[in-house]
Design brief:
Elements: H1 2-18, H2 25-45, E1 47-51, E2 54-58, H3 60-63, H4 68-74, H5 77-97, H6 102-133, H7 138-149, H8 152-163, H9 165-168, H10 174-189, H11 199-216, H12 223-242, H13 266-281, H14 283-289, H15 293-304, H16 306-324, H17 341-365, H18 392-401
Antiparallel strand pairs: 1-2
Helix pairs in contact: 1-15, 1-18, 2-4, 2-5, 2-14, 2-15, 2-16, 5-11, 5-13, 6-7, 6-8, 6-16, 10-11, 11-13, 12-13, 16-17
């Protein structure tokens, strides 16, 4: 144990020294918190219950609406799009300055997003086929596939905005916000068609994305602007929920007539503004925290595996649920209906088990997210034979330098 701790401390020190001085570590910290929020949120508000010979998806928010504030804490996608817009706009500006063609820049960024997706799709295609051949009900298979694949909408939207960075980077954030407001007015206030709401899938997430792009150009250097975002967004969200008829939950609730997230509503956009304001206010304390090598190394490691964690966290939860069926079909907090406060306490006890299963998935599939080695070694770096793998610590350091 002592050797393990000293080894981690040595690696953390090496990663800290390898990190470029100009790197804004608070950006990586915000991305890490956003990913963890999504993971924990899904684990807390998604339940699989056994009954009628199969598994069915449900949510404690449906039977306990007073839990809506939980979604305010763990629905952190706006922060992820804020960071994404900041990094993409900054990266594209740097690529242009270095004469890197757009197709190369966008290919590298999208490749990092979609390489890990292939492994998820391939494995679950095999699993779904095996379940059907083994006699599993179509409803069970549909439920499982929905949990695995439905989060991929996020990647499609994020990839589209990333590819459109040259067009949207200088778009003023009030413009997409006005589109969201207009769409909601049309479909909720004027009786417009429901399908028009899907315009907000792009417009809604453009709001934090363009805020991030503005941040990359030097906006939000003063705390006052971030405070306005936080206060104005929170006040607008409260008004829309209390008097505008929008649901209090910031995630979808099974059986609800309106979802704030699918597609995004004006309430979700306003809430995202508040989240972005809070994130910008936290930059300074996060930057100070990231000066500690061990803290920074953990954040850096999570960032290097962000897509793996995001893509496999639902698989981890479902694997634990399925294995639990081997012992009982009524394990509290795992197979039971989320209908009481006791379920919440029981569910919290399962989170470390989900995390352990996710660690197994991470160890198996993180290779698909690791950056490829550059063709030209850095000055003074040891040259490995063609095809040889770098030691784990060296790969970690090299990725952090990128």
């Amino acid at each position: 144990m002592v050797e393990l701790r000293s080894g981690w401390a040595a690696l953390a020190d090496r990663v800290d020294r390898a990190t470029p001085a100009h790197r804004d570590r608070s950006v990586d910290a915000l991305r890490a918190f956003a990913i963890l929020g999504v993971v924990l949120g899904h684990w807390l508000v998604t339940a699989l219950t056994s009954g009628d010979g199969g598994l069915h998806g449900t949510s404690p928010l449906a039977s306990m609406p007073w839990l809506a504030p939980v979604s305010w804490v763990f629905q952190t996608l706006a922060v992820f799009f804020l960071v994404g817009g900041h990094v993409a706009a900054q990266g594209y500006a740097s690529a242009r300055a270095r004469g890197v063609p757009y197709r190369i820049w966008v290919g590298q960024r999208l490749g990092r997003l979609f390489r890990p997706v292939a492994a998820v799709l391939a494995l679950w295609a095999v699993v779904a086929g095996a379940l059907l051949l083994g006699g599993a009900g179509i409803e069970t298979v549909r439920t499982l596939l929905k949990l695995v694949w439905s989060p991929l909408w996020f990647l499609l939207v994020f990839a589209a905005l990333t590819a459109a960075t040259p067009l949207v980077a200088r778009l003023p954030p009030p413009a997409p916000l006005a589109v969201v407001a207009g769409v909601d007015l049309w479909r909720f206030g004027l009786g417009g068609p429901a399908w028009i709401g899907w315009v907000n899938v792009a417009a809604g997430w453009l709001v934090p994305y363009t805020l991030g792009a503005a941040w990359s150009r030097g906006a939000f250097t003063r705390r006052r602007t971030a405070l306005v975002l936080l206060g104005g967004g929170a006040a607008a969200t409260a008004v829309l929920i209390l008097w505008g008829g929008y649901p209090a939950s910031m995630v979808g609730v099974p059986g609800a007539a309106v979802s704030n997230l699918n597609p995004p509503t004006l309430a979700a956009a306003a809430f995202g503004l508040a989240q972005c304001g809070l994130a910008l206010l936290l930059r300074a304390p996060l930057a100070r925290a990231m000066r500690r090598p061990r803290t920074w190394a953990k954040v850096a490691l999570l960032n290097l595996s962000a897509m793996t964690v995001f893509l496999w966290h639902q698989t981890a939860m479902m694997s634990v649920t399925a294995l639990g069926l081997l012992f009982s079909t009524d394990l509290p907090g795992l197979h039971t209906a989320p209908a009481s406060a006791a379920w919440i306490a029981e569910r919290l006890l399962w989170l470390p088990v989900f995390a352990a299963a996710l660690a197994v998935c991470w160890a198996a599939f993180r290779v698909h997210e690791q950056p490829r080695r550059a063709g030209t070694p850095r000055a003074g770096a040891a040259v490995a034979p063609p095809g040889a793998a770098l030691p784990r610590a060296a790969r970690f350091e090299e990725a952090v330098r990128a």
